[in-house]
Amino acid sequence: MAKIDKRFQILLSEEEQILLKNEASRRGVSQGELIRLALKNEIIQKSELLRRQALMALTELLD
Predict the structure, then answer these.
(1) CA–CA separation, 12 vs 27, rounded Å?
(2) What's the N-to-C CA distance of the chain in angstroms?
(3) What distance in Å separates the CA atoms of residue 63 and residue 56, rounded to the nearest whole number?
(4) What is the pTM of this model?
(5) What's the rounded Cα separation, in Å, for the pair 60 and 54?
(6) Are 12 and 19 in contact (CB under 8 A)?
(7) pLDDT tens per residue across span 1-52
(8) DSSP 57
């Protein structure tokens, strides 16, 4: 696991706090860990989508 050594402060609505607390509890992880997982998943999904789109564009150019 990566070393966690930076702080980041965000503001959440009451609804977001409740959703975060409930989902973290359901998964058996801390709220901070759930936020880190969500962040990684969002970035990875966007990066992979961009890579696929670039590959498709290159494939079309080569056809």
Answers:
(1) 20
(2) 43
(3) 11
(4) 0.65
(5) 10
(6) no
(7) 568 788 889 999 999 999 999 999 999 999 999 999 998 888 877 777 777 8
(8) H
